[in-house]
Amino acid sequence: MNPRTLSRLEMMRAAAVVAVVLAALVAVAWQFVEPAPPRTVVIATGSASGAYHAAARHYAEHFEVSGLELVVRETAGSIENYALLNTPGSGVDVAIVQGGTAPSDKEKRKELVALASLYLEPVWVFYRGEAQLERIGQLAGRRIAVGAEGSGVRALSLEMLAAGGVVGGQSGTMLVDLGGDKAVAALREGSVDAALFVMGPTAPLISELMHTPGVRLMSFEQAHAYARRFRYLSPVTLHRGSLDLVRDLPEREVQLVAPAAVLVARKDVHPAVVALLTEAAVRTHRGGDLLSDPGRFPNDTLTELPVNEQARYYLTHGPDFLRRMLPFWLAALIHRFVVLLIPLFVVLVPLLRLTPPVYRWSVRSRIYRWYARLRVIDERLRGELDVEQVRKDLLLLDQLEHEIGGLKVPLSYMDEFYDLRLHVGYIRGRLEERLTVPGAPRTEGALKHG
């Protein structure tokens, strides 16, 4: 074989060793690479006419631009949304829920995280009558619509009414499971005396009730006390005329308490989906409203659940460098392989530096193999003369010298290389001596190898 070919083969063998080590590292690291983000994500909201549903539609448009589909599922409200999130196989990945409605079961909470508080949605208490009511306790003895079964409105209404001393079934108080349009209709018709709602100030139902004769809005004079007792509530002020400047509604400043609408997800939702949802929430809600200044929401406060760290980072610092510079799919792809690329980069440089030593080891092993062949010839020289074998050994030495002459040896091993050539010459001389002086006495002595 051509000596240059031999040299190339040695280099290829060294590179192959490095490649095998690198492939093993890739195989191990691959086990930790995240799967690709799902093409379809399901979000649970509330009724089709509600604010949660409308917000989720905006999120869906943002997902569509990024190449993913966000399926918006209509539900009865926050209680059902939490139940769907905690039910394996429901298909629901995320949900918009009302603050104060998280499951009390710690095991169920462990599987959920908050992504962001989206905006404040006050508790509105509308009632019939001329008297000005300022405390929840003044509703005792009345027929009160507390929201539909399974809704977050009902859960919060019952909690606040109990705290205010209004207990269903006593002192003539009747709690009616009506919410939304049905509660508005019942209040207008007089089949209920009061109704509680939880929604944003621009909701059509609020405007309708504000313009309904005989129906008044309660101002929570104990707003700060409620906010201290229920940490998910915030005291807010609805300024005079903020709902209708022309009709000057409300006619005075109104104190309200407000939970926040919260974007909640299962803990195992893909990180790329978390980033996209948080980005969609920021773009949808950052403009502010009648109750909050621009930029206040979304944020990582006013949640009952721990906040996802990736979502918290986005809310605090904005999108990372890759998301700012690249399309969603490409940024998600790079994020997937970061866990693979970083350790590989750290290992690859030492591996590349290892290639020359591996190559030198390969050369040294070949030198050792040549010495082994020389030793066999040397041992035959100690035996009886066999002219035919001597000629064969000389041909073998010619081949050996040809191989050695075409080999490129690292400088650090040149001493061994030249020693080898000297020993080849020594053995050749002894072989030629046996052919020219057959009767001469045999030379004793072993071949030395350093």
UniProtKB/TrEMBL annotation:
Residue ranges of the TM segments: 328-352
Keyword annotations of the record: Membrane, Transmembrane, Transmembrane helix
Pfam family, one: NMT1_3
Gene3D superfamilies: Periplasmic binding protein-like II
Classification via InterPro entries: TRAP_TAXI
Superkingdom of the organism of origin: Bacteria
PANTHER family: SLL1037 PROTEIN
Name listed for the protein in its UniProt record: TAXI family TRAP transporter solute-binding subunit
